[in-house]
C-alpha cells in the first residue's frame, strides 16, 4: 500500500501515541489503559487508511475528462467562472468524506496556466456557497486551447490544502496534483458543450471515473 507523503508525520505521531499507550498499560497493569491503547491503535490504523495513495489506471485521451477526486457528485450546474475561464462553465462538484482517498489528480493533460490560493471559511463543503466562501486552491489548465479549472475546497474539518501545481509546468492526465486533509470537495469547471457522463449522487474514483467528454462527443 502506498501512502501520501503528507501523511507520514500524522502516521508517526498516531503510532507513537499507540505505542505509548501500550507501554503505560503494561507498566501499570491497568484495564482502562489497555482500552485506551486499543483505541489509539484504531486511530493509528484510520490515519494510515486516510492517507493511502493507491495506483490508479483508467481511460485516457484528449477528449476524456477523468475525475480528480474520490467521492460523490453533489452538484452539476452551469455557472459564471471569471477567474480563469472568463465566462460560462459547467461545474461538477465532488464531495469527499473522511473515508475517501484524498489524493487529487489532474483530469486532463496540459499546461498549468493559473494557480491561485484564496483564504476563506470552513463551511460544510457539500453546500453551494462553499464554492465561493471556503478556503480554496484553484488550478487552471490549458488543454490544447481548452481551459479547464480544478478547485480544491476545504470543508468543516479540512484545514490544509496541498497543491503540487506550478505555473508553466506540463502535467499528465491522472497524475497526482495534491491532497486535502480530512474531508473536503473538488470542483471541476468545464466548457458548457461537454457531454457529461456522471450524475448527482454517483460515486467517483480519482484517475478512473470518466466525468465527461469534451466537444460533446
Structural write-up:
This protein is α+β, with helices and mostly antiparallel strands and 217 residues long. The protein has two domains: 5-50; 64-216, Glucose Permease (Domain IIA) (Distorted Sandwich). It contains three helices and 14 strands. The chain has helices at residues 8-28, 31-50, 130-133; strands at residues 64-66, 71-81, 87-96, 103-105, 110-118, 136-143, 146-154, 161-163, 170-171, 176-180, 184-190, 195-196, 203-204, 210-213. Strand 2 and strand 3 (87-96) form a beta hairpin. Helix 1 packs antiparallel against helix 2 (31-50). It starts with 7 loop residues before the first helix and ends with a strand. 38% of the residues are buried.
